[in-house]
Specification:
The protein is mostly helical and about 250 residues long. Helices cover about 85% and strands about 0% of the residues. It is globular and about 55 Å long.
Length: about 250
């Protein structure tokens, strides 16, 4: 079995679950949002703890954020950005219509958003680490909302290219320790340089909206649209298309 056949099998099982039991698929996406929300909170709390040293803070954030993707991969949840890569392969092979892919992506995006916003909102309402998080996240979010559209799009494309390499490696590897190291390494590789992940940004923007006064909701929504489109291109075009071509019979 080559790599494309492997990914086709995984992707077609996702389509089957969505078609037969859409509620089950939604809850898998919801749980992915929960896992990524916990990772977002942990990573930013770690960064806030070292904010007096920006380089250490950035490394602390980047090296801990990967626990979200580890949980998603090991526990069988559904992440939108990973599915930008996985779910498009059967479309290239004409096994699935692109309209079904849009439906799967939409359901996954919705589930991720619901789970992530819920867990982050509960954390913010709890008041835990509020002062340190607020002082740490305010300059970060203000910088994120002062963006050049094309640069933001390119950051999003590169981000999901790297994220989907982690997902691809997880599909191929058998050893769980190797999977763990590979995922954490590649997640650090997208977080540390400041690349843009649409689902992670939902969590960051939720924290910022609740803690930082005067932020532009319009700018956050515009950023989300650009980053989401870039993530789709990064997974579906920059990685999945060349992979399909190099594995063609």
């Amino acid at each position: 079995m080559n790599d494309v056949q492997l990914i086709n099998g995984i992707a077609l099982s996702k389509y089957k679950t969505l078609s037969a039991t859409p509620g089950k698929y939604f809850w898998r996406a919801f749980m992915a949002g929960i896992f990524l929300g916990v990772a977002t909170l942990f990573a930013f709390t770690m960064g806030a703890g070292f904010q007096d040293n920006p380089t250490v803070a950035r490394l602390a954030l980047a090296s801990t954020f990967g626990i979200g993707l580890v949980a998603i991969s090991f526990l069988g949840a559904e992440l939108f950005t990973g599915n930008c890569f996985t779910a498009i392969i059967p479309v290239f092979d004409r096994k699935v219509k692109f309209s079904k892919t849009l439906g799967l992506w939409g359901m996954c995006y919705l589930g991720n958003a619901c789970g992530l916003i819920l867990v982050v909102s509960v954390f913010v309402l709890s008041g835990a680490q509020r002062a340190s998080l607020m002082s740490y996240i305010q300059p970060i979010i203000e910088a994120r909302l002062d963006f050049n559209v094309w640069q933001l799009l390119l950051k999003a494309i590169l981000c999901n290219f790297v994220v989907c390499i982690a997902a691809y490696g997880n599909m191929k590897m058998k050893n769980e320790a190797a999977k763990l190291f590979f995922i954490l390494l590649f997640v650090t590789a997208f977080v540390f340089p400041g690349l843009e992940h649409c689902i992670a940004n939902m969590g960051i923007f939720t924290v910022a909206f609740c803690m930082v006064p005067g932020l532009s909701v319009g700018a956050m929504l515009k950023s989300m649209v650009i980053v989401t489109l870039g993530n789709i291109v990064g997974g579906a075009v920059l990685l999945a298309w060349p992979l399909r071509k190099m594995s063609a019979d």
